[in-house]
Amino acid sequence: MYIQGVLTVAMINIISATGLAVFTGFTGLFSLGHAAFMAVGAYTSAILTYFLGVPYVLALVAGVLASSVVAALVGYPTLRTRLRGDYFAIATIGMGEATRVILENLKITQGARGLPGISQYTTLPVAAVAAAIVLALARNMLASVYGRNAVAVREDAVAAEMSGIHLLRTRMISLVFSAGCAGLAGGLYAHYLAFIQPVMFTMVQSTQITAAVVCGGTGSLTGPALAAFVFTVAPELLRAAHMWRLVIYGLMLVLIMVFRPQGLMGYRDLSWSTFSTLAARIRRRTPHGKR
Amino acid sequence: MANAETRFSRVSRPAPEREGCEGGGTPVIAECIGLTKLFGGVRAVSHLSFKVDEGEILGLIGPNGAGKTTVFNLLTGFYRPTSGSMLFRGRDLAGLAPPAIVGLGIARTFQNIRLFSNLTVLDNVRSVLYRHAPYGFAQALIRSPRVRRDERRVREKALEYLEEVGLAGRAYDRASHLPYGLQRKLELARALALEPVLLLLDEPAAGMNPEESMSLVGLIDHLRRKHNLTIILIEHHMDVVMSLSHRIVVMNFGEKLMEGSPEEVQTDVRVIEAYLGEEYASAYRR
């Protein structure tokens, strides 16, 4: 039961890390308020199932939509600045805090006390299937024109714009996708814990998602997913080490920064990228092997 | 290499002939009228006027800091002109965003190479082939058959463009691992992939040795003919400019110093003065 719980949380963290990987690792922008998108998703879906008896899956979808809309509203004015993404990162700090304060003061969210007694619909299989779907969707997006535009903007915003790629549109698409993933993670989380309150979604939570993405490697999907998994499971495994576990956790982060500044899997991915380039190399050896 | 030389030999040095636009009826494709750009008190470009005829290669030369690259930055929408206008096929470009200008058919390369350096050579070209992948976001997420079909086409197209500049064999190398000369060719392929009408080349031969730059001359002329391009060329290698350009505009301190055929420019006292100083010019006068 306990192990299942840890793995469920790990799956949920994989979802939010995958979303942020698309935004940070592939589009090259930082967000320090992704927990707020989780909060919007969590509260939206929890309120729908708790007060209105909306079916679980529909509630999750509504959570995804709600956080996407919030992301679009925050992103549109802040991502307009042509060449700099820094304004957005700063704005997300404010948005994160504002979201928490709003949740603490709304009647429907029951303020700081939180929402207890949410139905516990999220089980390990549900979370695992959701994580697999999100990873597949992210992979598809990145292999499409939308992903290529995002990567081009990350690599050189000037060259991308001079090649006709719309910076704002590209960044907005990445952000909305990313926030949607966070919203889904939030919804799953609420229905796993059966209880949510605003303090769960602070900057600490945002930082943990960012840490997973940066340590997992920019320009990689499987890296952040792996890191999110490790960072969820490792502290639990280290529980035997008592008060030293947070020290070891911190040491892990520092060691990755020192020895793998590009992240565990910077610009590389297990499966598809690795194998397709490998296959391409082999194909190249065969004469006129272009399809 | 032999191939490069035969390509080059097609470019007749003294008076490059222009195909398909002989006679007086050559349509003007682009025109700058009184173009001015101030940076604070600095006049980077000052009352510059010139025309570009369809199908020609217009050389844009001048000493360092003459404002040549600023002209490109204005034409591509990276800067807004302080005053003056830029017409492209009769449309004023001033105030348009760069993607809109690309959409009208203007593409460029950069003086200091700007590739997507962490990507493969192939992906650098694929990145700008978005026009060939017009599917929606939902389709992209589920990777529908249409997406797969479009993506196959994008890949083929990208390889075709790489083939044209001779980079198909390095399609899966990382762009930053290419030698300098090949990086310039990759930029050229990326610009070509935008299917431009007007191509702006900012020092395409910079950092190349004479042999490489002559092979580039052959390549540029070949591409111009094949894709019916009009080209504005900024270049410091005089042999490259002189053998490619049909006409040359000389800039100095943001202004147009003179305009003429390669021979006229080469023998003009003002040009020699701008490049080498007054002493040389007066020596030349004698």
Which short descriptors sum up this protein?
heterodimer; A: 291 residues; mainly alpha; two-stranded antiparallel ribbon; 1% strand; B: alpha/beta; Rossmann fold; 40% helix; globular
Question: How would you sum up this structure, described in words?
Answer:
Chain A is mainly alpha-helical and 291 residues long. Chain A has a domain at 2-201. Chain A contains 12 helices and 2 strands, in the order H-H-H-H-E-H-H-H-H-E-H-H-H-H. A two-stranded antiparallel ribbon of chain A has the order 1-2. Chain A is globular. The model of chain A has no long low-confidence stretch (mean pLDDT 87). By secondary structure, chain B is an alpha/beta fold. Chain B has a domain at 2-12 and 25-105 and 196-285: Rossmann fold. Chain B has a 6-stranded mixed sheet, with helices on both faces. Chain B has a 4-stranded antiparallel sheet with strand order 2-1-4-5, covered by helices on one side. In chain B, helix 1 (2-9) packs across helix 8 (210-227), helix 6 packs across helix 7 and helix 8 runs parallel beside helix 9 (238-244). Chain B is globular and about 75 Å long. The A-B interface holds A 137, 140-141, 143-149, 151-152, 155-156, 158-166, 173, 219, 267, 277, 280-281, 284, 290-291 and B 76, 78, 98-99, 102-103, 107-108, 110, 114-120, 123, 126-128, 130, 133, 135, 137, 140-143, 147, 150-152, 154-156, 159, 168-169, 171-172, 190, 194.
